[in-house]
Amino acid sequence: MTFLSGLRDRLREGLKRSQEHLASGLAAVLEPERPIDDTLYEELEELLLAADLGATLAADFTNRAREEVMFGTVTRADQLRPLFRRFLADTLQPAAQPLDLDHRPAVVLMLGVNGAGKTTTAAKLAAALRGSGKQVLLAAADTFRAAAIEQLQRWGERIDVAVIHQAPGSDPAAVVFDAVKAATARGVDALIVDTAGRLHTKTNLMEELAKLKRVIERQLPGAPHESLMVMDAPTGQNGFAQARMFHEAIGLSGVALTKLDGTAKGGIVVRIVRELKVPIKLIGVGERVDDLQAFDAEAFVDALLPVK
After folding, report:
1. Is the CA virtual torsion 112, 115, 116, 121 positive or negative?
2. What digits encode the pLDDT tens for the residues 75-95?
3. What kind and span of H or E run contains 62?
């Protein structure tokens, strides 16, 4: 996915709060001359939990540390830091998967709760694709919020991408039907569909989103090619619960994690990969239109926990 800039400096700056939180904690726990004992292991596990890495991963790494000490490959507390870097890299590497855009049109369904940055992420992705020379179409299928339609239209004007929309309160399935028809007729490379994150009716959100997927699939067998959960990193535990709910109900092809620059708990990335077993396709590290990046495991680990 070379159309997205993998700018390491920007990623490092975006993860600065998470990096400082984790690095300072590890420095305090893993002092070189400190004895490696049960107290150290307990403090290490608590630190990883506080970084939102999750109980499973925290326990797994602590057990790995115990094994390395037992086998004699680790003899000083500070040697656990590079061991943790390798552990993170090994965990995240399988999650660095590109978007599936090898279709014409490739249909990308943006999912997630309101406030996670879904509409903005859809627009940023559209801008990145357009900047790489691809023809793109946006669909405003969050018809339950007039503000969402207006926001996507403003973005469309800003990045010069057409937006398929209807009046607020319209059937989102009708918007999606029209959008797929237009994308096919115009021969565009990608159709990006913004969806509702909350409904103002008694209709179940997951049922509504599943309906949209069926409408798309009937028109384009095999589509949508991506069902991306847009998740707000600072929400931490709540965001993880939301991702699990969407994955179980809809089936996610990946996660787009936004606002990583606004949290000290960037470890949520690792937890998503480890516990949900869902790839991280995109990350957002700022407010600029070009701050959306393809997820790069090596670059992420370097930014979160630099080599000393």
Report:
1. positive
2. 999 999 999 999 999 999 988
3. helix 55-71
